Amino acid sequence: FVFYIIIILRVLDIQFNKKKFLLNYANQQIIKEMTILPPRGIIFDRNQNILAMNKKVYDIVLIPRNKNLFLSSVTNVLNYLHISNPTIINEVKKRKKYTSIVSNRELFEKDKQYLKKIEGIFLEEKWIRYYPHASLLSKTLGFVGHENKGLSGIEYFLDEQLRGLPEKILYHQDAKGRPLKIDQRSKGDLPENITLTV
């Protein structure tokens, strides 16, 4: 009888006193937020020549599902892209999960189609800042750092207009971290293009 009373009291404690805490804890495990950064606004000179723009690049990553195949997958990628990188082979041998193989690589459509067919290989699309005239007006234009944020020059002083607002997605994931369904999607604001007087 005492044993059952203890169980009932414990259930009531969980139901009423710890309900909010446990629900929040559960949501933290299964509900994740993803932020999608828009490409920054373009910077023009007074004659509408482009001084700063965006370039679409890809990170090539390995998420191995079959341990016996992941080394051959990495070798296949490096050979296809004509890259010699023994260090990444050693790194992949030590890791069992997500490993970045190549960063900020421009790819043609045929390259993407080929790489997507390789076991355990995934492409992560992103935008990087590109200055067509290299160092011309570099001190005036400044540069962009991590997470699409301007760090100096025009890129810094007009960062809010050039960056826009990111799109945020809340989604459920399963026990293995795979997305299941989108719960909420907040639309971001498009960035503004800037025309300078120089």
Tell me about the largest β-sheet.
Answer: 5 strands, mixed
Strand content: 25-35%
What is the H-and-E element order? HHEEEHHEHEHHHEEE
User: From the helix content, strand content and strand pairing, which structural class follows?
Assistant: alpha+beta
Rg (C-alpha, Å): 24 Å
Indicate the low-confidence ranges by residue numbers.
none
Helix proportion of residues, in percent?
25-40%
How many strands appear in the DSSP assignment? 8
How many helical elements?
A: 8
Would you kindly provide a written description of the structure presented here, covering whatever features stand out?
The protein has helices at 2-17, 19-30, 70-80, 86-94, 109-116, 138-141, 153-157, 159-163; strands at residues 31-36, 43-44, 50-62, 99-105, 121-130, 167-173, 179-186, 194-195. The protein has 198 residues and is α+β, with helices and mostly antiparallel strands. Strands 2, 3, 4, 5 and 8 form a five-stranded mixed sheet that branches. A three-stranded antiparallel sheet has the order 1-6-7. β2 (43-44) and β3 (50-62) form a beta hairpin. α1 crosses α2 (19-30). It is flat and about 85 Å long. The model has no long low-confidence stretch (mean pLDDT 81).
Quick take:
The protein has 198 residues and is of the alpha+beta class. It is built from eight helices and eight strands.
